[in-house]
Design goal:
- The protein contains nine helices and ten strands.
- 43% of the residues lie in helices and 22% in strands.
- With 253 residues, it is α+β, with helices and mostly antiparallel strands.
- It folds into two domains: 70 residues, Arc Repressor Mutant, subunit A (Orthogonal Bundle), CATH 1.10.10; 163 residues, Beta-Lactamase, CATH 3.30.450.40.
- β5 and β6 form a beta hairpin.
Length: 253
């Protein structure tokens, strides 16, 4: 039988309590965390942490980056939050913002969350044009070679970026320099990088503590995108990011 402790007369299941404390620690962390970080912060047995993390990963509340072996919040937190708040009502608030981008730019615009070291598309609005980038809900894309993915890495240090080089043709210095420029201008860029003849612009969506909770990306055929269009689209995306940030506050925190 599970060990129970008492707190003000109320029984506590210790394994559940430890799991929740681990989950809260991961949620509160600025970036991915190592098992050793959790052990140091919570002073739990390493084997215990490992087994509890395995359960949290299985249920989708925690994700493990296959490259770094570090841990991050899982998509089930997001989806559970949505289920409790009627997803059709939640997305009815987000979708008009994405639709505004599509109406202004004429190009497909998507929203991504992070899962398992990848960017996962969870909603979006598709361009009405015949030649367009198609909306693909559930699509997973790598981080360092896509606009949506780079937006998740926009504040990463050189040391942290080392773990993502296998998914890009860029070397460490080039990737670091590109993200430095992205931070300065407020958006990321992908031109014929992940897919031929496709250009994408990405922006991060921040929580109240300045952490990236999701990203937005507008995707278009490269033939329709020049420097002037990139500037126009990026401004629309940054405006949308600010609006969605207000709605996203509280999703994970």
């Amino acid at each position: 039988m599970e060990q129970v402790s008492k707190n003000d007369g109320k029984g506590l299941i210790k394994s559940v309590q430890k799991s929740l404390k681990i989950l809260k620690y991961i949620i509160d962390a600025n970036e991915e965390v190592a098992l050793s970080d959790i052990q140091k912060a919570l002073d739990y047995n390493v084997s215990t942490i490992h087994h509890l993390l395995k359960t949290l990963i299985e249920e989708g509340f925690v994700s493990q980056n296959k490259t770094t072996k570090r841990y991050y919040i899982g998509p089930e937190i997001f989806f559970t939050w949505l289920r409790g708040r009627r997803p059709e009502n939640y997305f009815s608030r987000v979708t008009p913002i994405l639709e505004e981008c599509v109406e202004a730019t004429g190009e497909t615009t998507n929203l991504f969350i992070r899962d398992n070291g990848e960017a996962l598309c969870i909603t979006g609005s598709e361009s009405p044009k015949t030649l367009r980038a198609f909306l693909r809900i559930g699509r997973r894309i790598p981080l360092p070679c896509t606009a949506a993915g780079k937006a998740f890495l926009i504040n990463y240090t050189r040391e942290e970026l080392k773990n993502y080089l296998k998914d890009t043709t860029k070397d460490l210095i080039s990737l670091e320099e590109e993200l430095k420029i992205s931070r300065q201008r407020g958006y990321t860029l992908e031109i014929n990088e992940y897919e031929e003849m496709i250009t994408a612009i990405g922006v991060p969506v921040f929580d109240r503590n300045g952490r990236v909770i999701c990203t937005l990306s507008t995707i278009a055929p490269s033939t329709r995108v020049d420097e002037e269009r990139i500037e126009f689209i990026s401004n629309k995306l940054m405006d949308a990011s600010k609006k969605i940030s207000e709605l996203m506050l509280g999703v994970f925190y």
